[in-house]
Amino acid sequence: MVKKAITDLQLRAWLKRGEPMPAKALGDGLYFRIRDSGTSQFYYRYRFGSKNGKWYFLGRYPDMSLAEARDEARECRVLVRRGIDPAVEKQRAKAEALQGARFATVADEWFAKEIRPRYKHPDVVERVLRKWVKPHLGDSPIGDVTPMQVDRLLGEIARGGAPTVSNDALRYIQRIFRYARKRHIVGLNPVADFDQSDAGGQESSRERFLSGHELRKLFAAMSESRSFGRDNELAVKLLLLLCVRKMELLSARWEDMDLVAGLWRLSVNKSARPTEIPLPALAISWLHELQVRACKSAFVFPARRVSMRKRFPHVGPDTLNRALEELGHGLAPFTVHDLRRTARSHLSRIGVTADIAERCLNHKIRGVQGTYDRHDYFFERQNALAAWASELEAMGASG
């Protein structure tokens, strides 16, 4: 019996399920995979020399169509028959082509190879590139970028009130040019001599946190706003209550939530054991509401716009930041990350010991204690978060 060929419609159906999928053969060495992050990719698998089963990345779907992936796989098969390793040949041809490429093209390749596979939250890097670096340098041929151009960019970011972002932008630009030099795309690195003094300067620790009075005002403003949105409101409250990082919450999956046992198994990375976060009754009530609002999505906070080219299958990293910036809360400026500092400060205020408070934030304990004390303090954290939930309810967060 002849197998029916996989169609684009089938790929879309797999992607719509919102679940990771191991590499699936599409025929003639072409494979399709959906990663844990929700991104889908084409690969070509082949044998070359003494190495058995080499994998060559072709592209991301739907940026690369199924027809294009089949054409790429066909070209790879021809190269293998001629005794040429597709990975080596494509890399040589790409480096040659990139010698006159725009900065944005090389930056995208650097991001795809060195950031996306290795960073837990690659969206943090992507945001700086998209919002600041590419609008200024993206269209310039990478070999024509000058120190003066970079200096103007870094100064504009720093003067705009974001010195830390200016430092981040410098680090990323330096790494992009090191990547380009190693691949003979450029001969010189125009920012080799730059340091923090040329960007945002020495960074100091942030001290902003929200007092109890400010939290009451914030909860009232979110509740009364017609544009802030209930999902955004619940995200802010859960970040405060559970002490987690923004993208840990926004990318959370329902399969990791046990609302009956009151437990969230947060996978910090693929190799480490998941962190078990206790869910207070207040958090469970909010999550039940979000479960209804998610409309059977695999994600607690699914993407709000339906698009085959969406960057994330869940709410993106910029959404909550923009919503808070536009909310007329009448408070001194604060960032989403300041909510973690707020939670940590209030845990101390209500009498939670430092070691338990640090574990509530999933911080690593340093020194000898961190090396030898492997207890997860689940019940102690459960009691601490329950006490913190009571404080938040008293401030008006329960609505």
UniProtKB/TrEMBL annotation:
Keyword DNA-binding: yes
Pfam families: Arm-DNA-bind_3, Phage_int_M, Phage_integrase
GO molecular function: DNA binding
Domain Tyr recombinase: 205-387
Highest taxon, organism lineage: Bacteria
Core-binding (CB) domain boundaries: 101-181
UniProt entry keywords in alphabetical sequence: DNA integration, DNA recombination, DNA-binding
Family named by the database record: Belongs to the 'phage' integrase family.
Protein name, UniProt field: Integrase arm-type DNA-binding domain-containing protein
Originating organism: Spectribacter hydrogenoxidans
Organism lineage string: Bacteria, Pseudomonadati, Pseudomonadota, Gammaproteobacteria, Salinisphaerales
